[in-house]
Amino acid sequence: MSDIKIVEAPPGVEGAGFFATSLDKAVGLARSYSLWPLPFATSCCGIEFMATMGSHYDLARFGAERLSFSPRQADLLMVMGTIAKKMAPVLRQVYLQMAEPRWVMAVGACASSGGVFDTYSVLQGIDEIIPVDVYVPGCPPRPEGIIDGLTRIQELVQNESLRRRDSDEYKQLLAKYGIQ
Amino acid sequence: MAEVKEMNNQAVLDKLQFKFADAIFNVSEPFDLLTITTSKDKVIEIIQFLYDNEELKFRFLTDICGVHYPDQELPLGVVYHLHSLTNNIRVRIKVFLPESAPRIQTLTGVFLGANWMERETYDFFGIIFEGHPDLRRILNVDDMVAFPMRKEFPLEDPNRTDKNDDYFGR
């Protein structure tokens, strides 16, 4: 007997032969369980990510089997590791090349805040150059931490309004980073 | 078969002092590594001699780096590490320059590999290698204006606003 659980349907109206729910919920559900992450791994957090993708922890269980190494097809940018200031324009370009809707996860102390590298050559957190949705603490975080981060991203994806990316608030956020 | 002669620090020093008697000073051997100081006018000539000499054969440039001693009369240093692979012996050559005019001849005429090492030394210490084919920054961001390995440069990122000195006991 298999104990595989299928995701429950979002709240809606059910009757004989039909099921009605809001488009937001249906799209959010579909998106959240088919995220294509782009791993931007520069150091030890990237090694933890490899473990996370491996058979033991297996991020594929959460619908993120397919890593995208092209930003154009990716939904989720996972930044794992120290980002030097010289790397910053590269990371920013990768973010700009991603299509909306896009999410960003800063994995580990370095990507979140610069970590121990409080020095002139290291970016003090990637949120200096691109907006971040979820921060995963740890140096490096265990695979469980990264999985927790992904499930937080999934929550955001599920509950995001379809119009959020058109909202003034979102445009202001991007404008703050000089994007668009 | 030619007899294999053991080369040692003293033999290298003797050859150098014979040829460049008044250009070599501050000779020392920390950790058995022959270390000499010379002037910026003579250094290329000395390295060329070490390279060309059929017995010495210092034909591998391990590294060029900079150093900053702010209290010295000549505060900026350039350090050359040479290695004779055939003799299994190394030598370290130091040159000190004034902070007002940190200029020295390039070594790229002798070792092409000096190119990036000199760019790195320029990048971090602002030492200008005259005659270098492409002297620009190599590791730091291109628009940086300071030379970050000089002692007066603050190490910590100046843009951090969350660091209260009280919490760090200073």
From TrEMBL, chain A:
Sequence ranges assigned to domain NADH:ubiquinone oxidoreductase-like 20kDa subunit in this UniProt record: 44-152
Family: Belongs to the complex I 20 kDa subunit family.
Residues noted as binding [4Fe-4S] cluster in the record, renumbered to the chain: 44-45, 110, 139
Membrane topology value: Peripheral membrane protein
Gene3D superfamilies in the record: 3.40.50.12280
Cleaved signal peptide residues: none
Listed name of the protein: NADH-quinone oxidoreductase subunit B
Record has Transferase as a keyword: no
Enzyme kind, highest EC tier: translocase
TrEMBL record, chain B:
Keyword Membrane: yes
Family of the protein in this entry: Belongs to the complex I 30 kDa subunit family.
E.C. code: 7.1.1.-
Membrane topology: Peripheral membrane protein
Assembly mode: NDH-1 is composed of 14 different subunits. Subunits NuoB, C, D, E, F, and G constitute the peripheral sector of the complex.
One GO CC term, this protein: plasma membrane
Free-text function comment from the UniProt entry: NDH-1 shuttles electrons from NADH, via FMN and iron-sulfur (Fe-S) centers, to quinones in the respiratory chain. The immediate electron acceptor for the enzyme in this species is believed to be a menaquinone. Couples the redox reaction to proton translocation (for every two electrons transferred, four hydrogen ions are translocated across the cytoplasmic membrane), and thus conserves the redox energy in a proton gradient.
Domain NADH:ubiquinone oxidoreductase 30kDa subunit: 36-157
Transmembrane in keyword set: no
Location of the protein in the cell: Cell membrane
A GO MF label: NADH dehydrogenase (quinone) (non-electrogenic) activity
InterPro entries, per the entry: NADH_DH_suC (IPR010218), NADH_quin_OxRdtase_su_C/D-like (IPR037232), NADH_UbQ_OxRdtase_30kDa_su (IPR001268), NADH_UbQ_OxRdtase_CS (IPR020396)
Keywords in alphabetical order: Cell membrane, Membrane, NAD, Quinone, Translocase, Transport
Highest taxon in the source lineage: Bacteria
Pfam families the record matches: Complex1_30kDa
Catalyzed reactions per annotation: a quinone + NADH + 5 H(+)(in) = a quinol + NAD(+) + 4 H(+)(out)
Lineage: Bacteria, Pseudomonadati, Bacteroidota, Sphingobacteriia, Sphingobacteriales
Protein name (record): NADH-quinone oxidoreductase subunit C
